[in-house]
């Protein structure tokens, strides 16, 4: 009997949509036995210099879903992204579905609520989302049972979503030649990230793994699908059985050289609100820039 709570022999149809501006991949995941689907890690477009938000990327997902006659049941956030803004409410308004994220969103909201001086009007209870997932929770997309694995380290709220033979790892892992995500944001921890990666690598070797980002190392074409076996054998940060202490040293040394993501300030403010843009006292959409806050 499998130690996993769902049937991982199902083969959902996965369509990836690459966002050039943020190197993010959003997904439509279709239940193989019905017209039900989920959206994973959507993107809302922003011209930060101009303070202008648009929805071209999300409109691609909407067009695809409507053309195929699909029914959206879930809009999944693998974590609170620091490099792009979520389009979850825009998609929910047009397509329906429930917005879900890991239950440790409460930690993220408390941390960044202070950094952005949000005051008492900002709810830090995760109520902006429709479902807060705990480790091991399951849910349905049509007739397909899915489950979540808590995989913190990049952020406290990171979750890997397993849907049949497909797992959506967020920023926990990159493609094998890209390694792993940074662990130096508030609430991040390189050792915890290593432990989380081991949970992903404990899935069946033929499990398809889908990345949230790809940067085309060494100029290769962008890619976002690999397998557990490929990661175990070839990942430049954890492959070949790299020891935890070695990974922590590598990750911390690399993180010390990285700049903050270009869109981290607007992304955190929006994404900890489930994709809603904050407003000022007059109800106008407004973003803050905390000086020396990160």
Secondary structure elements and their pairing?
Layout: E1 13-19, E2 24-30, E3 36-40, E4 45-47, E5 52-54, H1 56-68, E6 71-76, H2 88-95, E7 98-102, H3 105-115, E8 131-133, E9 138-141, E10 144-150, E11 159-163, E12 166-168, H4 190-201, E13 208-210, E14 225-227, H5 228-234, H6 244-255, H7 264-271
Helix pairs in contact: 4-6
Average residue pLDDT:
96
By CATH, the architecture is named 4-Layer Sandwich
In spatial order, strands of the major sheet run 1-2-3-6-7-8
Overall number of domains:
1
Order of helices and strands: EEEEEHEHEHEEEEEHEEHHH
Structural summary, described in words:
24% of the residues lie in helices and 22% in strands. The chain is of the alpha/beta class. The chain has one domain: Metallo-beta-lactamase, Chain A. Strands 1-2-3-6-7-8 form a 6-stranded mixed beta sheet, covered by helices on one side. β9 (138-141) and β10 (144-150) form a beta hairpin. It is globular, with a radius of gyration of 18 Å. The N and C termini lie far apart (47 Å).
Put the structure in a nutshell:
The protein is of the alpha/beta class.
Features:
294 residues; alpha/beta; Metallo-beta-lactamase, Chain A; six-stranded mixed β-sheet; 14 strands; globular
């Amino acid at each position: 009997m499998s130690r996993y709570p769902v049937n991982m022999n199902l083969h959902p149809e996965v369509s990836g949509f690459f966002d050039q501006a943020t190197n993010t991949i959003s997904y439509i995941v279709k239940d193989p036995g019905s017209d039900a689907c989920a959206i994973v890690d959507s993107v809302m477009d922003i011209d930060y210099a101009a303070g202008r938000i648009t929805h071209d990327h999300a409109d691609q997902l909407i067009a695809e879903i409507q053309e195929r006659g699909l029914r959206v049941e879930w809009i999944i956030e693998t974590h609170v992204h620091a490099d792009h803004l979520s389009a979850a409410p825009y998609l929910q308004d047009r397509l329906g579905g429930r917005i879900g994220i890991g239950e440790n969103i409460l930690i993220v909201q408390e941390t960044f609520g202070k950094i952005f001086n949000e005051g008492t009007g900002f709810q830090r209870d995760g109520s902006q989302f429709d479902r807060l997932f705990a480790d091991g929770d399951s849910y349905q997309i049509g007739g397909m049972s899915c489950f979540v694995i808590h995989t913190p380290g990049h952020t406290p709220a990171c979750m890997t979503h397993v849907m049949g033979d497909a797992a959506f790892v967020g920023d926990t892992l990159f493609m094998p030649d890209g390694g792993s995500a940074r662990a130096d944001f508030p609430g991040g921890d390189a050792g915890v990230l290593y432990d989380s990666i081991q949970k992903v690598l404990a899935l069946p070797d033929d499990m398809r793994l889908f990345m949230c980002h790809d940067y085309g190392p060494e100029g290769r074409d962008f890619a976002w699908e690999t397998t557990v076996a490929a990661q175990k054998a070839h990942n430049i940060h954890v492959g070949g059985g790299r020891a935890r202490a070695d990974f922590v040293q590598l990750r911390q040394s690399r993180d010390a050289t990285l700049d903050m993501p270009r869109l981290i300030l607007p992304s955190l403010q929006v994404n900890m609100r489930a994709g809603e843009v904050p407003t000022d006292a007059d109800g106008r959409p407004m973003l803050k820039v905390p000086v020396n806050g990160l």
